Structures are given as C-alpha cells and as structure tokens.
Amino acid sequence: MNEYINLTLDNIDEEHICCAIGDPKHQEGVDKKKEWMKKKLKEGHVFRRLNARGKIFIEYEPLDTAWVPISGKNYEYIYCLWVAGSFKGKGVGRELLEYAIDDAKKQKRNGICTLVSKKKKPFLGEKKFFEHFGFEVVDSVGDYELMALAFKKGDTPKFNDNAREMKIKDKDFTIYYSNECPYVEYEVKELSDYAKKKKIKLNFVKIDTLKKAKEAPCVFNNWANFYQGKFISNTILNANALEKLLK
C-alpha cells in the first residue's frame, strides 16, 4: 500500500516538495515556495505527496484563496497533480486525486476544479485523466479549459473577465510569475542576466498577492509569457528558449 505525507507547518522545513529535488540551482526557489506555502497552509492549502524521492504529488486549496484568476462558489482548486518517472501507471495519480475529491466532499464543497488545455501544455494536467473521474469542461479561454467535478447542482466556476483578455498594454517581452512554482526564481535570474547581456528589454511582473492573481490578464498558472502585448504561452523559459522565441 502506498504511503503518503501531507505537508504541515510542523514538517515542511524537513520534508521535500518534490520539484527540483537535489538541484542546488533551484534551492532559492524551493525556499521561497516553502515560505509561500507556510502562509497558504493556514488558508486550507494542501500539499500531499508520495513518501518517496520523486515528483509525485497533488496540491490544492479553496478556490476563494487560490492564486488563479478563477471564481466559483465553495469550490476547491487543484494547482498541480504530477506523477513522474517510474511511478506512472501504478495508480498513484488516481489515489492522489481521489483523496482530494474525498477531502472536498468532507468539507462540504460544491465541487472541485482544475486548469487543463485542449492540447497538452507544460505544468497542466491531462484532460483525459480528469474526464475519467467525471470532470467536465465548464469554461474556456483559447486553448485553455477549466474543468470541474460538481457535487451539487448550481453555479460552476468560471474564469474572471480579466483572464479572458490574454493581452496587456506593454509591447515588450513581459513575464508574469509567482513563487507557487519553485522553478521560477532561477529562470527569472537567468533571463534577467541574458537580457542585460543582449541589451533586450524584458519585464517581470511578480504575482505576490491574492488580488494580483485574481486580476491577472490571462489564465495565469505560475508563469505567463507576453510579447507585443499578446499572451504567448505558460511555458517557463530559460535563456535558450527565450532566444529561440525572439528569433
């Protein structure tokens, strides 16, 4: 039987958070992710992982306090469900999702929701996997879809109006990001150094409050790239990826 661990204020300093395990260059990002989580745990944030050294976890919290431009009455929101490597195909993803669903029901939520895409995109869940559990598409913006599993009849979650814009006024390459993802700090530094070296105008907008997250001008999911005022992707970039994009 698989053994799982829920991170708490008592164990978070000692336990790993799956992403960037053993990679020194991402340690700053891991530390900032944990600081972000310490505040969120008090709001009902849940980070549950397999008791193993790997990227096998689910992360969710009440939609009202979730850092996403989505609104819905009494719903839970799944930030990430990730099962990597040799643990794929062994029922771990099913067990993690079933735990989140059961937890939401115990809390008497109206349902649970998550962000996916019509075509597979990085850091987003598999649409077919969620469909298997009864999730349905309740809203969409471009290639991005909001899926929900409703426990009760009534209003379903939806993207906020600002998230439908998918554009900003600034024409320079602009990146929105937050410490919800431990990978971003290193890439922000790498891209900043690259832009300075190449004399490229590169803007960063840090999402560091719930208000900013709810008012994001796109279906924000930890990282969002804009160029010429238009949303490009939610792919976390390094210097080489940015150079290819600009070419």
Protein described:
The chain is α+β, with helices and mostly antiparallel strands and 247 residues long. The chain folds into 2 domains: 4-160, Aminopeptidase (3-Layer(aba) Sandwich); 162-246, Glutaredoxin (3-Layer(aba) Sandwich). Helices cover 26% and strands 27% of the residues. It has 6 helices and 13 strands. The strands form 3 sheets. Strands 1-2-3-5-6-8-7 form a 7-stranded mixed beta sheet. The chain has a 4-stranded mixed beta sheet with strand order 11-10-12-13, covered by helices on one side. It has a two-stranded antiparallel ribbon with strand order 4-9. A hairpin with a 5-residue loop joins strand 2 (46-50) and strand 3 (56-62). The protein is globular. It starts with a strand and ends with a helix. The model has no long low-confidence stretch (mean pLDDT 95).
Which descriptors would you attach to this protein?
Aminopeptidase, alpha+beta, Glutaredoxin, 247 residues, seven-stranded mixed beta sheet, 27% strand, 2 domains, globular, single chain
CATH class of the largest domain, please?
Answer: Alpha Beta
State the domain count. Answer: 2
Radius of gyration: 18 Å
List the quaternary state of the chains.
Answer: single chain
Largest sheet: 7 strands, mixed
| Unreliable residue stretches | none
> Hey, roughly how much beta strand do the residues contain?
25-35%
> What would the principal axes of the Cα set say about the shape?
globular
Under CATH, the topology of the largest domain is which? Aminopeptidase
Number of beta strands? 13
Distance between the termini: 50 Å
Order of helices and strands: EHEEEEHEHEEEEHEHEEH
Strand order of the largest sheet: 1-2-3-5-6-8-7
CATH superfamily of the largest domain: Gcn5-related N-acetyltransferase (GNAT)
- Mean pLDDT level: 95
Query: What is the architecture of the largest domain at the second tier of CATH?
Result: 3-Layer(aba) Sandwich
Number of helical segments with 4 or more residues: 6
Helix content: 25-40%
